[in-house]
Structures are given as structure tokens and as C-alpha cells.
Specification:
The complex is a heterodimer of chains A (333) and B (444). Chain A is mostly helical and 333 residues long. Chain A contains 15 helices and 2 strands. By secondary structure, chain B is an alpha/beta fold. In chain B, α4 crosses α7.
Chain lengths: 333, 444
Amino acid sequence: MNNLLNVSPSPHQQSPETTRKLMYGVVTALAPALAASVYFFGMGAIIVTLTSVLSCVAVEYLIQKFILKTKPSVTDGSAVVTGLLLAFNVPSNLPVYIIIIGAIISIGVAKMTFGGLGSNPFNPALVGRVFLLISFPVQMTSWPVPSGFKTGYLDAVTGATPLGTMSEGIRNGETVAALMEKVPSHMQLFYGQMGGSMGEIAALALIIGGIYMIWRKIITWHIPVSVLLTVAIFTGILWFADPTKFADPLFHLLTGGIMLGAIYMATDYVTSPMTPKGMIIYGIGIGVITVLIRTWGAYPEGVSFAILIMNAFVPLLNMYIKPARFGKEVKHG
Amino acid sequence: MFKTFPKGGIHPPENKLTAGKPIVVLPAPLQVTVPVSQHIGAPATPMVEKGAAVKAGQVIAQAKGFVSANIHSPVSGKVSKIDTVVDTTGYKQTAIVIDVEGDEWVETIDRSKTLVRDVTMTREQIIERCQQCGLVGMGGATFPTHIKMTVPAGKKCDLLIINGVECEPYLTSDHRLMLEKGAEVLTGASIIMRALGVDSAVVGIEANKPDAIAHLTELAKGFKGVTVQSLKVKYPQGGEKQLIKACTGREVPSGGLPVDVGVVVQNVGTALAVYEAVQKNKPLMERVVTVTGRSVKNPGNFQVRIGTPVTALIEAAGGLPDDTGKVINGGPMMGKALAITDVPVTKGTSGIIMFPAESSKRAEVLPCIRCGKCSSACAMGLEPWLISVVSEKAMWDKAEQEKITDCMECGACAYTCPAKRPLLDYIRLGKSTVIRMARERISK
């Protein structure tokens, strides 16, 4: 026998699941929400998404090729996911150069400086988004409204988000009941008929993608459910306490970036805890901080900040929240 | 109701290609190579010289100390040499090479096929017989059976579990034994029950072997205290601790033994060997080996003499396929890859799997994306990503603190990893280092 045998330690087979398949699974899960964005915002959504994805991939490739001088690994799909999520987190009329700056911050600063995939402590897309929000506050908060004409991009008709209307109105002493008349109905919110960042509007499409990811075992239910449940309970308590001052829980769940954040941003593998128990604590933290910012903060929306703040706690959660060891407690049957 | 263990576990493709293939008894080869260490513990001491005539069933190497096992000649013939050979683990060791002449067995062995149901021996006699007959665990761990049958002083045992799980993909030798020698296996279980002084035994079988579950459930009606428990298909359910948890809900403490929760686990093949030793006075000199693989021409379950070269088994299965890239001794999850196929079958050889070249190399290793799938897969509740990283960085104290020694090396973490990280390689390194350091601490 002259053909040599391969020798390696066990296990001798590996699951068909790969990093790339997981990443493109997330892309697939984002497809319904992308379709909804294109439906509501038209041309702008397409331009923003393409710019963001291409520039994220390009930034990662260029850094790996020319600065780090390592083998580029853009085909693993993680830069595509970051690009999509960055696009989903900005208004659909954002000028191209701002998007490119966002991509440079997301990939260049938040991801590659820490060592690339797997090593970044903060969600890259959110770092990019928050950087843009602080640097370009006007462009980042002029939200195209879905009623605007579909081929418009920079010239799209803009208006406030439901959360912005609510937040400002309450501050001016208007009652929630009166404000509810000014914002879209819950049903419209559910389908995505509202102003906002391009990918956060369509709750229905985001939930469909979330169910797909749970079914495909890309994510588990722990983070999305604990975030959404915490928001619902916290805002529910406030609403019960004073329905004239606080919006109902369903309004909070359907507006702003909470669906996008809970299902797609908070569940980012790299920046979320590794154990189910840790995930639930992390999710509760995100929910609580989001409601605190929405209700008493300067910004009408706080999901991005909440996730970034809880990202910082992930190493601690991983250190102290351990899975239940087998054989820890001695039980006699 | 299908029971299972609650924590972790995976479900690799089962690939039980040979489940429907009856056991084929292969004739003794022209020459056998019998290593003196086929068990956990001290190697046995050779008792025969070059040129000596031996009969099948005769002791050719004597157990050295308590944790050791006798080695018997599996054939009749002449000792041609006592040599150093490479065994299935890849290490060199002493082996007795015998040229086969005829097939003469030691007279005291009952070679008839009649089932002997009545157990007449006492507890001590049973244990002594198992020790004489060189019995070891047939599931692959090859721990001497007589030690496992002796309940340590101060411990109480109330249940025997017969391990018919066979959770490794591809392997079907235990499955076939349950179907073809069910009564013998259950009689063996009754014998072990007597040796342990327990009144009940459970045979744990996974749901992917419905014929074995049905057959043994029917047979078990004739055996007092023996029941069959069907289990959900999940790897690594054949691990002792997982099997006990699945069948009884009892959890063996970290660092403890099954007997700490009053259970002893024996493999189906071991139960059969106990039956043959006690009722038929037949030492452990044969075993059933599954020879299989996707492109193997004639995969099957073969009963061979210990010491038969693996090449002879591969020939019996239609020869080594042209596309073979890897030959595994044991299952694909925990088995060892063979560097050469000219090695002898030993007491612990449960299967020979031939993998095509394209699936015999590992995939490219990518960075850890911290998905936590390895922690979810770990049946021991460990964090494979963490203990592999601390082992890689030689942080042995941290590895010990994170219970690296609880790892049973089932490979579920490395199987699951989407980034294809060699988690278990580093964990093995860490585990062996931590165990060595702990021993050194004690001896100081």
C-alpha cells in the first residue's frame, strides 16, 4: 500500500455549519426587512445599502491586504453583515460620503484595530452608527417618511419618527392620547409605515427574519426575548402608573430600533455573552437602559447606546456567569 | 417515553451502514499478533517462549498486579516470536506472534451454542472467573472488568446499567450483538447483577435501534429485574455519566465514579463476554468489529480472533477503497486514526472505518466568533472555548479551576465549532498537563 493515510486526533468529522454559512444566514434573515425598506423608501434604501456593504467589505479588504498584510478574509461574510446592519441603522437619505465614513469607523476602528473578526468588544455597526449620530446630528436625524416619492434619495421628504414626536410632545406637556393621533396606528407601525432608520421600521419583516434565525439555529431566543420582554414590562409598568405621560408597551416595541436591535444587533456573536444565563442578563440590561434613555434621556431613542453599554459588560458576564457544570451537586436518586 | 441526558449533546449523521448486516464469523488468519497490553493498567507478562505450542484459550501472558488483565492465545499454533510491534494506538509494545495451526481449543471451554441460563457461581467465583478470563470493557475503554465488578468497601451499588447506546456514528457491533445474542447478553447482565449484589438492571438503547429495543424488551420479560430503557438519539449518550443521568436522573459528581451514585455501567459486549466466561469458561479471545465506510465495497460486522491484522478485516470487507484517506480504529468521534493498517485487532477494537480522502482532512481554522455553540454542545457543562484558549496559553491553574479534568474528550465541541477550531486538541493538552501537575502535587 503506497497511499499514505491521514492521521489526526479525534473527532474525525465536523459539522457542516461554518462561519460563512452563519453569516450568510444572517444576510438571508435580513432580506425581508431590506425588501420592506426598499418598498417604503425606494431608491434611497438601495443606494444606502449598496454603499454601506461595499465600503465595509472594501475597508476590511484594504486594511488586511495593505496594513496588516494578512490573507484577506472578507469572504467570511462578517463585513457584509456589518455593512447591512450599518445601512439599516441610518436614514435612507444619508449622503454617500457619510456612509463611507461610517464604514471606515465600523470596520476600521471598531473591528480591525481590535484584531478583526472575533476580537472586537463593541458591535462594529453600532459604533459606526453612534459615531455618525454624534458627528452628523442633522443628517442622521432627518428621517425620510415612507409617503415620500420612491425615487427620491437626498431630496426625500423628511419628518419626525414616532418616538421623536412622542418624546418632544411629552416634553411640551401634551398628553399621550393627543400624541397618539399624530403618529401612525399600531398596525401601520407593525408593517413599517413610519419614519426612521432605513432598516428598523418594519417590525413584521424583522420578526420573520428573527424566527428564521432561531429555526436555523443561528441565534437562540434568549437575547431577543429578554430584551423585548424587559422593554414591554418596564414600559408597561410606566404606562399603568400614568397612561397620560407614558406610551403603551406595544408602541415602544413597534417603534425605533428595538426590533432591529434585539433581534440582529444585540445577538451579534462576538459582542454578546456565551451562556444562556449571561444572555438573559445582558438582554434585560439592554431593555432597561433603552427604556431609561427613551423616557428620561436627551435622545428619543436609546437602543444603540443600550447595546454598546451592555457590550462593555460582556467580558464580566462571561467571567462570572458559568454554565451549570455536570456533577456539581451530588444527587442520590 | 424516550429519555435522554439534559445538558448539551449533538446529533452527527448516524451513518449506521451495517445495522442490517448479520455478524460474519471470520476464520482464524494464518498468523496473529497479540499485544500484551490491550487494557488500561499494567501490561501483562508473557508466559510462553518462542517455539512453544499453544491452544486457543490458553493464558500466554499473565496479568501484572490487580489493575491488569490476562491475555489468552486466540488460536492454536506455535509461538513464532515475541516482538515489538506497533499497535492500534500507534505506540510500540511487546506482542506475542503466533503461527496458526489447526483450531484446537483448551478442553475446559464449552464450545457448544446452547444457552446456559442458570447461574450457579457465587459472587466471588464470578469475579475470579472474569479476572482469569482476561475480561475488559469492550466499549473501547478496556478497563479490567473484575475491578468494575468489585464494589469498593463503603460504597453501595443498587443498579446495573447495560450500555447498548452505541452513540458513535457508523458502529453497529453492539447493535448486532443485541439482536443476535440477546439472551446471552441478558444472562451476562444477570451474572453481573449477582456479582454486584443488585436486584435491578437497565439496558439503555437509543431509539435508532428499534429492532434491538423490541427484541430485548421481549427477552427481558424472562429475566428478573432486567428492563429496557429506550433513549433519544443524542451523542455522547454512551458516556457513562450521561447514560446514568439519562436512565436514572442521578448525576455522578465531578471527579467521581458511577458507583458514587450506586450504579455500575457495563457495555453490551462486556455482558456477552461475562456470559461466555462464566457459563462457558471461554476467555476473551474474540470480538465483533464493524468494518465500514461510505465507499467500502462490502461493509459488515465481523467476529474475529484477537490479534487478527486489521488488513485481514479490510480484505473481508472488500479491500481498502481507492479513495481512502483515513482509517479509524473506533468511531469517528472518539476513535484513533491509524497510520498503518498492519496492526492487530485488540480487545478494545470496536470498529474500523475507512474515510474517503476528501473528508479525512480538517477544514481551515478561522478565528473564534464567540458563538458559544461549543458550550451548548458540552455534555459536561464546560466551556470548551475557554479551556482550550487557557490551555493554548499554558494557563494551567485557570484550566484546572475551569474543571478541564471533567472533559471526557467526546469531541462534541470540536464537531460543532463553525470556525473549525481544534478545541479538543488544546483541551487534551491542558487536561493531561493538569492531571500530571496534580499527581506531582500529591507525590510531593
